[in-house]
Amino acid sequence: MAVKDIFKDVEKPEGTCTDKNCPYHGNIKFRGRVRTGKVVSTKMTGTCTVQIDYLRYVPKYRRYMRARSKIHAHIPACINIREGDIVKIGECRRLAKTVSHVVLGRVIKYG
User: Fold this and answer.
1) What pLDDT is recorded for position 16?
2) What is the pTM of this model?
3) Long-range contacts of 36-40 (CB under 8 A, 24+ apart)
4) For the chain, which domains are there?
5) Confidence label for 12 from pLDDT (cuts 50, 70 and 90)
């Protein structure tokens, strides 16, 4: 997936920031998986919790079950998000003990 495709359906930040872990204005490089999920919590300073919903196949019953996981992601200073927003996050190097993703932006259209 090219860089142009990743930022295709994401809102770009209007202002600038001095955050070194910002994908737009800093020097953080993201690699690996890019995921889309719903922001569940923004109570931590500079970090949010994103819930990823997916389907998991169960071979015994030959059916799919709904599953979810919660991922902590760093919020750059130039991106404003709230609980309930659909965001796109990218995997990056470890920023804290539980944080290894960075928020790329709010998704304009989901689906």
Assistant:
1) 87
2) 0.86
3) 36/86, 36/87, 36/88, 36/89, 36/107, 36/110, 37/71, 37/86, 37/87, 37/89, 38/84, 38/85, 38/86, 38/87, 39/81, 39/82, 39/83, 39/84, 39/85, 39/86, 39/87, 40/70, 40/83
4) 3-106 (2.40.50.1000)
5) confident
